[in-house]
Design brief:
The protein is mainly α. Helices cover 75% and strands 0% of the residues. 35% of the residues are buried.
Length: 277
């Protein structure tokens, strides 16, 4: 007599977390590349003979680009920091765009809030699938834990609420480092740009004073070169720091918005379980 064996029941496949651009993990490489590019541009573009009298960059500059070249060796370092700021600004924009997902964050939170008010978990999960991104991943983790605890008859209500909160906190802890990655470097560049620019300014002023103290009342060409070096470094440092400061604060506010959205949705999920179970 033949016997048939039942195939073991398969667990439903879990929805894979939405992935996307997560950012550049090794910012030191970005800094090195940007400084190398800055030196290349400095000597090939800013130092081109067409920007100087007689076609030689050892002579007086005839335009602004040549004047910038006369700013000295500190200028390409500052330019490298400026390019780094631009690269990190673009990198953070792409990472945060992925984190917030495809749709409006406000619309997403409203969908989840409405679904939870109707105790409709599948609809809330569908909203996460449509939104994608880090916020949706965190909300999905909390909703999945919600379903697990709802079917568990061995725990008390307080234990289930704590488990849902823990799932929400754990998922948030996994996503937050990705959002904050490279922001500390951007914050450092807000001060470093000014400091490096100030260093170049001091070097330029030293050259100027040396030309004044020379015999015969000083060399006017050396004096103008020293002043140009001082001003070019000052302007470059301020521009670098200003750009870094603006986008550091902008992205910090974006992350605060992200955190607020998670807290809002997490509160709705926890409160819904507390009121309906």
């Amino acid at each position: 007599m033949s016997t048939t064996t039942k195939a073991p029941a398969q667990k439903p496949a879990q929805k894979k977390k939405s992935e996307g651009f997560k950012g550049i993990k090794n910012a030191f490489v970005v800094i090195c590349i940007c400084i190398a590019v800055a030196f290349l541009i400095f000597y090939t573009v800013f130092g081109a003979g067409s920007h100087f009298a007689g076609g030689d960059n050892a002579n007086e500059p005839i335009d602004l680009i040549g004047t910038i070249f006369k700013g000295g060796i500190v200028v390409p370092v500052i330019h490298g920091l400026f390019y780094t700021v631009v690269a990190l600004v673009v990198e953070r924009w792409l990472a945060l765009k992925t984190a917030f997902g495809k749709g409006s964050m406000e619309a997403f939170t409203n969908k989840v809030r409405k679904a939870m008010a109707e105790n409709d978990i599948p609809t809330a999960l569908k909203a996460c699938d449509a939104q994608q991104g880090s916020v949706a991943n965190v909300v999905r983790a909390a909703l999945e834990r919600y379903q697990v605890e709802e079917a568990d008859a061995t725990k008390t209500k307080a234990q289930k609420l704590e488990a849902i909160k823990a799932a929400l906190d754990d998922a948030t802890a996994l996503e937050m480092p990705t959002l904050q990655m490279n922001l500390p470097i951007l914050g450092v560049l807000t001060s470093l740009g000014v400091l490096v620019g100030l260093f170049g300014t001091v070097l330029g002023m030293i050259k100027s004073f040396q030309s004044i103290s020379g015999e015969g009342g000083g060399d006017s060409s050396a004096l103008s070169t020293g002043i140009s070096e001082a001003l070019v470094n000052t302007a470059s440092g301020i521009a670098t720091s200003a750009l870094a400061l603006i986008f550091y604060n902008f992205y910090t506010n974006r992350i605060d918005k992200f955190t607020y959205s998670l807290e809002e949705v997490g509160f709705v999920i926890v409160q819904n379980y507390a009121l309906t179970h």
